[in-house]
Amino acid sequence: MTDTAPRPTLEAVAARAGVSRATVSRVVNGGDGVRDVLVERVRKAVDELGYVPNQAARSLVTRRHDAIAVVVAEPETRVFADPFFALQLRGISKELTAHDNQLVLLLTEGRDDHARVGRYLAGGHVDGALVFSLHLDDPLPELIQRAGIPTVFGGRPGWSGDRREVVYVDSDNRGGARDAVRHLAGLGRTRIAHITGALDQTSAADRLDGYRDVMVDADPRLIAEADFTPAGGERAMRELLERCPDVDAVFAANDLMASGALRVLRGSGRRVPDDVAVIGFDDMRPVAEQTDPPLTTVRQDIEEMGRLMARLLLRGLDRDSPREGVGTTPSSVVLPTTLVRRGSA
Question: Taking residues 88-116, what's their average pLDDT?
């Protein structure tokens, strides 16, 4: 067993800096009204002594925990297998880290997890929540509303009825889908199929609407519902080939399903893009650049979406903070999409 040095105290910092304890407290906790010269002396003393503020005491002053819950409404098997979530979490983490906030990751496997997450959010452990991958029947929005904490959603919420003002970050899913299908039609393809994502999520529903905007009189058999996974894309592609063997193009609602569709097409002897052109959605480069052929896809900036979610939430917290005063109410953001052409279409 080794002896440990005593932890530096607020009083020790005050003595080193030659100021009062109250002055040190204001500087450490981000308060106003301290002259620049004194702020510099306090910060120098903090660095020299290695002083670390007591978070519990700091929270009493600032009413902030500097911790943000990130709630993903998916089981961990999906979250850790899908690069979409890694990209979004990376954007969130970068923004929170830049503002000295901790990320608390909460996943939901089932109804019991929803109740657990609701209790945690209501327990005063975090300053706010970032929530994404919601499904239409998800109880999380109601639980979050009861918890009464500031929240930013990833993706356009799809619930109906009266709700408090909702802030979200999304991509132009419908417009991106239109661009993809128009590109396929411009290649002379006439039997254009669509593999949807899970239609209890607004992103999938919006992309289906974008497909229908272009394919107004499309054969209903050219639409196959899947679940945003590679296996779902494989199943849907087999379905489409059985129902419509003359299909000459496919727009899949994400890159993972497109990769599954490509495997089935190759296994069936169809050449891509000669016989069947394929377009995905997301532009997740570890997927899109490694398929055979490389995948033409609609790019949405997934990492930027995560970063903006965190930024909007922190901006709202600063607006409500006694340290910051009144500011501008954050508003929702819809990011543009871009068609990225590669070898598959």
Answer: 88
Q: SS3 letters for 75-124?
A: CHHHHCCCHHHHHHHHHHHHHHHHCCCEEEEEECCCHHHHHHHHHHHHCC
Q: DSSP string of 268-307?
A: TT--TTTT-EEEEEE--HHHHTTSSSPPEEEE--HHHHHH
State the greatest distance between any 2 C-alpha atoms of the chain, in Å, as a whole number: 83
Are residues 168 and 328 in contact, defined by beta-carbon separation less than 8 angstroms?
no
The closest alpha carbon to 340, from 209, 155, 172, 176, belongs to 176
On the 0-12 / 13-18 / 19+ scale of CB atoms within 10 A, 38 is middle
Range with the poorest average pLDDT among 18-27, 147-156, 277-286: 18-27
CA 174, CA 149: separation in Å to the nearest integer?
Answer: 30
- In angstroms, rounded to a whole number, what is the distance separating the alpha carbons of residues 99 and 95? 7
Q: Which of 112, 125, 123 is nearest to 69 (CA)?
A: 125
pLDDT of 325: 42
pLDDT at 339 over 60: yes
The structure's pTM equals: 0.79
What is the distance in angstroms between the CA of the first residue and the CA of the last residue of the chain? 66
Q: pLDDT of 142-198, one tens digit each? A: 888 888 889 999 998 876 554 557 899 999 999 999 999 999 999 999 999 999 999
DSSP-assigned letters across all residues of 29-59? TT-S---HHHHHHHHHHHHHHT----HHHHH
**Rounded (10°) angle between helices 36-49 and 21-28:** 90
Give the whole-angstrom CA distance, residue 2 versus residue 15.
28
Q: Given this model, what pLDDT does residue 170 score?
A: 95
CA distance 298 to 75: 26
What is the pLDDT of the chain when averaged over all its residues?
87
CA distance 102 to 316: 17
Nearest C-alpha neighbor of 313 from the set 12, 10, 101: 101
Please give the average per-residue pLDDT across 256-279, as a whole number.
97
Cβ-count burial 139-166 (b if 16+ within 10 Å, e if not): ebbebbeebebbbbbbbbbbeeeeeeee
